[in-house]
Design goal:
4 strands
Amino acid sequence: MSERDTTRPVDQRATDTHRRDRPCRPADARRAVEHAVTACRGIDAPCDVGALSDAVLVASELTTNAILHGGGVTDFRVDVVEPGAHPGVRLSVCDRSRDLPVAVPPTDDRGRRRLGGHGWPIVCRLAREVRVADLPSEGKCITVVVPLS
């Protein structure tokens, strides 16, 4: 990603029905996604197991990256969007860093395989929308929509 999307500021004070305590660990984020999708299934939100797995993986990758590279998770939101024909899970993960996520080449300059560096490409491949926004105080918020069908 080469540019920041600052078209819509993020209101960190807003509350979601699916946001209780802020998940600060990848396992918490995975559970929050599963809960949001399960709670919404009854209102015409078809979701197959593979699509739910994709959404859970993206939540895990975003929170892991916020912890490893962004100074920790400062806010987390999850909700199901467009429950009709094109349902998806919208995830927002905020952290303390303004640094943009980057894709790291799979090998170093000597041709050796690198450990890590696969999370951001996975997020970009699985999400149908990806937005990175600067926060007014400090840090950034990454918002993605992962399809559920």
